[in-house]
Amino acid sequence: MKFDTRTLVLMAIAIVINIVVGQLAVWVKLPLYIDAVGTVLVAILAGPLAGAATGVLTNVIWGLVSDPTAAAFFPVSLVVGLVAGWLAKAGGFRTILRTVLSGVVIGIISTIVAIPIIVYMFGGVTGAGTDFATAYMVAIGQELLQSVAIANLATNLADKVLTCVIAWIIASRMPGRFTAGFPFYQRAAG
Hints:
Radius of gyration: 16 Å
Helix content: over 70%
CATH topology: Arp2/3 complex 21 kDa subunit ARPC3
Structural class: mainly alpha
CATH architecture: Orthogonal Bundle
Number of helices: 10
Number of domains: 1
Strand content: under 5%
Distance between the termini: 24 Å
CATH class: Mainly Alpha
C-alpha cells in the first residue's frame, strides 16, 4: 500500500479532524460519535485502502494520545473506511440520497463489528453517550448483548448518515483543481 504525498497529507488532516471532533463528542457525552468524517472523506477521495488506513491510524493515535478506549475500536474504523471506499467506487456518494443510503449501510456494518468489542472487551460500558441507553435497557430487563446492539444500531445509523452527509458535502464542494489529483474520486464521482 503506497500513497502519494497529496493522499498522505489528506490522511493526516483527516486523522486530526477525526480525533478532535470525536474527543469533543466523548467529552460532552453526545449520543453520536462523529469520529469518522475524515475517514469517509478520505475513502471518497482516495479509495477504500486510504480510508481504512486513515480509520486505523485515527484510533491507534487517539488511543495512545488521550483515550485508550478508542484504540480498541480500530476494527470498526477499518471497516468504515473500506466500506465507504467501496460504496464510493459503486457511486454511493453521487447524490444526497445515495449518500444517506451509504450511511445506513456503513451504520449497520459498523454496528456488527462494534458489538463484540463493546460487550466482551468493555462489559457494555465504553464512556460514550450510548452507555445511557444501554444502561436503561439493561435496567428494564433486557440482556446486555441485546441492549448494546439496539443502542448502538440506533446511534450508528444516525451517526454514519450524518458523517457521510458531512463528508459528501465537503468532497462535493472542493475545487476541481484539488480533486483532480485524486484519480479514485474522478472515477467514483463520474
